[in-house]
Design a protein that fits this description.
CATH superfamily: P-loop containing nucleotide triphosphate hydrolases
CATH topology: Rossmann fold
Number of strands: 8
Bound molecules: 2'-deoxycytidine-5'-monophosphate
Radius of gyration: 17 Å
Strand content: 5-15%
CATH class: Alpha Beta
Largest sheet: 5 strands, parallel
Order of helices and strands: EHEHHEEEHHEHEHHEH
Strand order of the largest sheet: 2-6-1-7-8
Number of domains: 1
Mean pLDDT: 95
CATH architecture: 3-Layer(aba) Sandwich
Distance between the termini: 15 Å
Shape: globular
Helix content: 40-55%
Length: 224
Amino acid sequence: MEKIIIAVDGYSSCGKSTLARSLAEKLGYTYIDSGAMYRAVTLYFLRNGILAGEEETALRNISLRFSRPANHTILNGEDVEEEIRQMYVSNQVSQVSAIPAVRRAMVRQQQEMGKEKGIVMDGRDIGTVVFPDAELKIFLTATPEVRTRRRYDELRAKGINTSMEEVRANLLKRDHIDSTREDSPLRQADDAAVIDNTRLTRDQQLQKALELARAAGAQENIAG
Ligand code: DC
């Protein structure tokens, strides 16, 4: 059975992981949250007080993997899935992600994970840098208002104490840094299909993506 690579990119909090996760489930593919990898590196840097110039050495001491089947982010053997979603990590992750040495190390690991295909990866540079030859590239968008509300509800549901203003400021700041950094900025790949999910339900957006996936050669998992 032919397997393909699906790249899902877009701004912060526009529902990339929700879409990528359910798409992977439907297709029986592996889902990789590349943002979680940058968040885990950020957590390591914060905990260990890594300063400019020390990144290369620090990166050699970082081992990242995802637990199966729960898909939790594991940093040097520790489950950090909850910790990496905290606001203090969100507030620093774009700065850390802009460091070329960090990007080189993450992109190398991500490309390795995609060698067997059958993968859905979400992030900012997946269709442009990590898998420029991906059979399907989706660029997700939604208005800042809708993105703020969704992220706020998600954080509150997890018991994380925050305000709409803080969430909005954080995501606009990350959008700005992510799309203006010098090394592999967030941008829509020329051959990406755009899905604006501002007025779509989760199921409607999934159906659109599944249509695109089928057209790109993916076959649905019978068991899924
Ligand atoms: O998807 P997320 O919001 O969890 O990602 C957190 C940050 O990681 C995001 O603000 C920018 C960075 N990131 C990146 O630079 N490249 C990726 N492929 C994924 C995320």
